[in-house]
Amino acid sequence: MMEKINTALNKLANTGQFKKRYDHLKDEVLSDPDIVLYLNENSSTVTNEMVEKSLVKLYEFTTQSKHNCEKCPTLGECKNVLKGYQPRLIIQGNSLDLQYDMCPRKAVDDDKKKREKLIQSLYVPRDILSASIRDFYQTDSSAGRMDAAEKATIFATEYEAGKKQKGLYLHGQFGVGKTYLLGAIANELAERKIPSMIVYVPDFLRELKGSIGDNTLNSKIEMVKKASVLMLDDLGAESMTSWGRDEVIGPILQFRMLENLPTFFTSNFNFAELKNHLTFSQRGEKEEVKAARVMERIMYLADPIHLDGKNRRH
Ligand code: ADP
Ligand code: MG
Predict the structure, then answer these.
(1) Is 68 exposed, middle or buried (CB count within 10 Å of its CB: 0-12, 13-18, 19+)?
(2) What distance lies between CA 297 and its chain's CA centroid?
(3) Contact 132 CB / ligand 1 (< 6 Å)
(4) Alpha carbons 255 and 218: distance in angstroms, whole number
(5) Measuring CA to CA, how many Å separate 210 from each of 61, 176, 204, 215, 251?
């Protein structure tokens, strides 16, 4: 009885659709150049029986991107069974199996994500993080820009955690690339695994104002205070209140001075204009002393550089 069933099954398997599909699969597998190479290289261990037994795995192998993502248009459209991983053949006991390793595109992408994680940016467009110092001066190399690029490079290549090193106060017209240069410095620091934080001052102050009275205000200020490398973008573009000056910006700068934490600024104002901006009258009073105190801290923390050039915003 058993014998009969086996014979019948064999007959079935050897005839018609199943046999056709099986042969087709085998042809496909044995015409894959990577498999041919592998079988040649391992001819002493891999038997025909092992190949037959592993046909499904081998077929999977033929359908995947195996070298440099050749079958996938992008990482997002990865065609492999395990997205971002490519198979290689291994011998597993008495059969062949696939081992999946990270593909080159995912490796590059992971690296980029790791780098971006090192740059915290509050309200600053992330595309600025592809900026480079080289691009900053190569597109326009006036004296002021070369000077800025040189100082930026010195900082980005020489700074180490704990080292006392002055930041830069980049000032100049709207659109000349002040924020771009900050992004470039942050990016090059990140390549050296040094974290930094870029904060767009007007939005930061607005958000803090909204947090008065809830318990997040202090932790938000603390986070900025203690950033390893802080970049305050567009100081002076906010409508500065005495609260913003004396309770937020002043204490942040004071802390960073005492702790030797590097701090960068960008502004449309030079020092004299910023001082004037910080000396606003409240109930008719000019608060020159308080403004002067903040200015002293800024000048202690950063060297001023005037950036010229054309407005790149249009
Ligand atoms: P600012 O902060 O001085 O107002 P931005 O840094 O925002 O100016 O630069 C204005 C625009 O020009 C942005 O879109 C920025 O990405 C672009 N940009 C600035 N400098 C460069 C550069 N060297 N190469 C390419 N794009 C640049
Ligand atoms: Mg800017």
Answers:
(1) exposed
(2) 31
(3) no
(4) 14
(5) 56, 31, 10, 11, 19
- In sequence order, the β-bridge partners of residue 89 are 98
What is the 3 state secondary structure string of 176-242? CCHHHHHHHHHHHHHHCCCCEEEEEHHHHHHHHHHHCCCCCHHHHHHHHHCCCCEEEECCCCCCCCH
- pTM across the whole model: 0.72
Is residue 176 in contact with ligand 1, taking CB distance under 6 Å? yes
User: Whose atoms come closest to the Cα of 181: which ligand?
Assistant: 1
Helix then strand count (H, E) for the chain reads: 15, 10
Check residue 15 and give its pLDDT: 64
Distance 127 CA to ligand 2 centre (A): 13
Give 309's DSSP letter. Answer: -
Q: What is the pLDDT of residues 101-145, one digit of tens each?
A: 999 999 888 877 876 777 676 766 767 778 899 988 887 778 889
CB-ligand 1 contact for 313 (6 Å cutoff): yes
Protein residue with least CA distance to atom 20, ligand 1: 177
